[in-house]
Structures are given as structure tokens and as C-alpha cells.
Batch of 4 targets.
Target 1
Amino acid sequence: MDRFRRATISTISGATIAGEAIGGAYAEASVRPDGVTSNGSQTSQVLSLYFGLVPQALRAKAAAVLADDIRRRGTKLSTGFLGTLYLLDTWADTGWTDEVTGLLLQRAIPPGAICPRTVRA
């Protein structure tokens, strides 16, 4: 049992180290000093923030890039269903709670809210 426990801890530690290396490589290649991630889309910003791929020092800038884009579009989302799932939590976690409230109180159906129930090949 002890051998299994040591192997499990080693695997978990190895996965953590690998995850940190992957996150670092992503940040180096895809996060600009102004907080724009990858192509700068709302989805890119949301997913990069949600999955911890933006360095701590740039998280506020990356969240502000997202906020600016949403405001520029008249408080509308362009995340589609992939990014919308993580948007509210990500935005709230980065301190944009008033904006989250504004999105939630909209009466119009936001983009990404209507998704196909089945996908046919």
C-alpha cells in the first residue's frame, strides 16, 4: 500500500510540474504584456484566465481587456457556448462583479445561450 501511495504522490507531483511548464509555455507564447491573450477574443481571454494560464501579474490586465471588449459591444458577449460557460465565474473572480450583475440582468437572450441540443455527424 505504501508503494502505491508513493507512486500516486509522485504522479500527482509530476502532473503539477508538467502543468506549470505547459502554463508557462502558453503564457510566454500567447499572453502579451498588455494582457491580450492569443487572438484577443472574448473566449481566448475567458479560457486563459479561467484555466490559470495568465501569469498573476497580468490577470487584472487580461480581465480588463475582456471587460473593454464586452463594453465595446454594448455589453454583449461573443464567447459562444465554449467561453460563456466560464465567463461569469472568471469575471467575478477577477473583481468585475458589477459587470457580471449587468450581464445577468439583461433581458435579451445573450449569444451562446441558444445551443443545439444534439450534434449530428
Target 2
Amino acid sequence: MKTAYYQWAILGLTAFMAACSSVPEHQGCYVAEPYVNGTYTGSCDQQSRANGQGVATGVDTYKGEFKSGVIHGWGLYTWSNGATFCGQFSQGNMAGLGIYTDSNGNRQEGIWEGTNLVQAYQANRLSCTIR
């Protein structure tokens, strides 16, 4: 009797874990960034990778330019906590001019290399609009 109970307990736990960790099925062209790889609408290349202008939505959202499935060029990345980065990206990383706004509304602008602000600009020197 204990064996049957443990089998049901393990089966129930496995089903619960599978439901909690399920990833939405991807729709549209391939996007390399896992946090925005869910639904993609926009231009694609010959290999069905995001290329040119597009919007990718997963846990986070990115609207802007892609190159061979990778976030590359100008864009707006919005994290699930509400923080944003609007500016230049290279090979999936913040790179160049941009504005980072944290989830509390604090704004940093200037030149970025990855997550590092390497040259800060005075407040409200930059503006960024992604269409």
C-alpha cells in the first residue's frame, strides 16, 4: 500500500513541476535571446531567423532590430519587472548610446558596454523612440 502511495505522490509532484516549468511554445522566426523567445512578429531571413525590424515577446519584450536571430541595432528592451533599455544593441548586449530606466523610474543615460555605463551623460540629454 505504501508503494502505491509513493507512486501517486511522485506522479503528482512530477505533474505539478511540469505545469510550473512549462515554457510557452515559440511562434514566428527564431530569436536567440531566451527571455524574449516566445512570440515573434516581424521580418525574417532565409533561415527563418528574426532579421530586420520585429517584436519578440516572452518573459521580457524587445521591439527593434535583429540580425540573424540576435538582438542587434536600435531597440527597446523591457524586462518583466518594468525596467527598460532604449538604445543600441550589439550581439544581444547593450552597446553604445542608450537610456536605462529601472523599475523605480531612475534613469541613467550615456554610452553602455553590456550592463556597464562607461560614459554617463547629463540627465535628459538623450531621447529614444522606437517605432
Target 3
Amino acid sequence: MYCMRNPGRDFLLKIMDESKQWLAFAQEDLLYGKMGINSFPRAASWSFQQAVEKSLKSLLLVIDGEVPRTHDVTYILSLLRKHYKISEDIVEAVLLIAEITPSVRYPADDLPEITAQLAKDYYQAAEKVVKWGLMLLLPDR
């Protein structure tokens, strides 16, 4: 666990590097999921959830110096709201992605089918959140 009180320069550089790694992984998950939208929409959707989760965690890391061990993107977003003004379209995108819980990774009788169209909707939402994270952390990019 990191302490953000009076952080040193080396510590801040380490946090920024780690945050960039989270964002790189988020972009990778987004692209990986995009490749599987039509063939494997359920698996692709999990990649989109992971992209959003990692993007949000990259922003939280810069603020708090740590990230919670959770897949709950709405919880992570609530932590970010204390520090960022978050537009309604980002909130809506995260809420849509929140439909994708870890349970979609496992068979169950009561889970709705994830169609290619729904996976495309998840992709668009995830792309919006990842781009927002990139804009905040790497504005010159």
C-alpha cells in the first residue's frame, strides 16, 4: 500500500509508470475484445469489462497510490467521483459495462445471452471510458 502524503519524486514517477501500464493493458483488452465481438461475444464482453476496470484503476492509482482488488466498476467510479468531475456519458458507459459481472465467465442457467449486438454496445461504452482515461492521464498523446 502506498501513502500519498508527501510523496517523493521517484515515487510519483513510479506511480505514473504503473498507471500508464494499467492504461496499456486496458487498450490491449479493448482491442482483444474487438477481435472477438462477432465470433465470441461473451468472451469479448469480459475483455471490455476488464478494459474499463483497468482504465478506471489507472486514474485511481494516480490519486490514491493504490487500487482496490475488485471487479466492481461502479465502486471504482464512485471513488473517482471524489476527485474528478465525471460526465454523464462516462457514468452511463460505466453503468452499461457494470452489467458484465464476473459471473459471465461461468455457465449459469439464469444469465441472458450476450449477442454480437450487445457486445458491440459494450465495446462502444468501453472505448469511451478508455479514451477518457487516456485523455486525463496522457493529454499530449
Target 4
Amino acid sequence: MAGGRWDWKKLRPRAAHDKPSPWQGVDYLDLVPRHAVECEPDSGTGNIVLLVPRYRDRLWGQLIQPRLGPAKRYVRVPLEARGSALWAAMDGRRSVRDLLATARAAAPGDDEDLARRVCLYVQNLADNGFVRLTGAGPADRLGT
């Protein structure tokens, strides 16, 4: 209170646009995805199947995960042909920009808005904990 009056500007809730984004100053195409889960080839189609541990938190992952049988230990997430090609190209050295060539080779002639779709696909993998994104400079702030 200044002089018997409320300073309403200090009391107002922060709007979503007031919060600084961890993506500010980051070129997503320069980030490097690396695998965070195991994978195996699908015997029928040859596509990749991600093996996601059923219990991923620290406590249950150490207590229960090792005691589960082989059939129950992992949740299997199948990838389609283009996703399998992108997954195979994610070696921890190639950036998302480098993955664009792999996506073009996996589905030639389907270049419409390819960069945006590959970025969304990689972000979806990162959001689900299947890959971790690393990079130089501002990208290291992401902590993923």
C-alpha cells in the first residue's frame, strides 16, 4: 500500500504471455534428439516398436519393474514407416534439420509443410519421454 492505496499492478495475476518461454531464442531445427527408450523391430512389418518401461518413476521403476515378466515389463509403441525411418536416423548426432532429408526419402513427393510436421513429431516423442532433446546454446536450458 502506497499512501493508503493499493497498487493493483503488483496484485494482478501474471498473464500466460508474461512468462518467459524456455523456447525463446531456440531454433528447433538445431536441436538433437537422442533415444530415451529401447526399441526392437516388428517381426511382421519390419517397422520399429518402442519399448517403454511400464514403471518409469524412481521408486516403482526400481522396485517393481525388474520383477515383472518379459511380457509385462514394457508397453510396446509401434511406429509407422516414416516414424521408423526417423527413429533409426536419430543417433544423438543428427539435428532435427538433418532428419528432414530422412523424412523426404521415406515418403518422396510428400514435402508439403514437412519441416513443421517433423518438428511436431519429434516434439511429440519428447513430450512422451521417448527422446531427449539436446543442443548447443539456449537449447541446454530445456533440461529434457
